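Q: What would this chain look like folded?
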Amino acid sequence: MANIKTQELKKRAEKALAGGGPEKNRMQKERGKLLARERIDYLLDPGTFQELGLLVKTGAVEFGLKEKELAGDGVVTGLGKINGRPVAVFAQDFTVLGGTLGLAHASKISRLMDLALQSRFPVIGLCDSGGARIQEGVDSLGGYGEIFYRNVMASGLIPQISAILGPCAGGAVYSPALTDFIFMVEGISHMFITGPEVVQKATGEITDFDSLGGANIHGERSGVCHFVSPSEEDCFRTIRELLSYLPSHQGETPPYEESRDDPRRTSDKLDELASQDSRKPYDVRLVIREIADGGKFLEAAKRFAPNLVVGFGRMAGNVVGFVANNPSSQAGSLDILASQKGARFVRFCDAFNIPIVTLVDVPGYWPGITQEHGGVILHGSKLLFAYGEATVPKVTVILKKAYGGAYDVMGSKHVGADINFSWPTAEIAVMGAEGAVQILYSKEVSRAPNPEAYLTEKISQYREHFVNPWTSAQKGYIDEVIEPARTREKVVTALQFLLRGNPRKPLLPRKHTNVPL
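A: My prediction, written as structure tokens:
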């Protein structure tokens, strides 16, 4: 009897493991996509996957569903390990009814998320789905709602990562949007509320899948996607790398990694960079790599709002989040998109105990009618709010320019930074010398015998007295003016002191803050 039951188990399991069957699996491969279980194998440490809900089937009977054998109801769920640490993972199976979400499908994901939240480890969703299962009607919508609710409940408690590995349309896009990081793969990933056909019927606009919601569009223009990969395999490698910087939950410190890089290492390249004209553009990633352990830096949202660079690295083995103005794009100024990008990243770091290192070279906010009408006042304040709210250790280095309100916003002492350094080349002022002199001496210039010489003299005087780090250092807004070559040493030392103590007290008790959304 036992042997018969064992044979029945093997038969049922074998059928479920086959997904949609040989023909559907072949079609998936022809689209250049991996199968759901292959994706899990690539992502997880070998031999660590414990599947949950293998034999779950839909209870729906309408529209021929009763006769269909829906293996696992179109989603593979379970637990496993990445770099030896536990994670929860689900992979939607496009070979089973296009990976559409029905009630049983949603219940499997919801139970997995409940388990992850209860046990405190990250959730990774591998999304490849045609959306809500029409045959199940409102049950599908209810299933999505259950997942959305859990995304919100898990936010800031455990890391949530989504990889879009096929279509993701309609209500299906909102669960990934509620997670912390979204990955997409060029050529196979698509996200949109309504597809090209509906767009054309509703608005007359003609488009296609890639132009409407492909990886490059969301990586460069919408900012929905944080990591764009050339292949699925590269996507999974990057997910594993990202998780190496993240704690398993908000009550844990980020994983420390012993570094062979001398914490007192100096950099001639930074001395050389500091000596260049402040108006000459450069890529701030050079500075990040010069001060990070081994020059390693995992950048997030690289293609979106490139005037602000954000990402993860280590300093003396401790994980840090870097936020840096990038003078090679829009002179490093802040605008609507950069403010949104920076605010989201700062808030993530604060939620998961990751110290923030801010590198400042900012001429101000990007001017223009488009920015003003687009709400730069509202959106620009998001980054300011995020810094002011953050309680993790914050170390700021002003490299060159720090003008106007952007000086305040970029991790200044006034919005709660713990230790603030400056290169001797820093220009800290309300505005640049040329603009300030034009305003302050407009009448005198017009009456001067030699207006050009008078203007040149006043600009030189203004620079000497105001556009420098000395005044700010005298007032205590800058803790130390440092040699550029010693930036790594100074930041590492500051972090080592800050990480020894208890975290700063959180904000006064309240239901929640009212972020300027």
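The radius of gyration is 27 Å.
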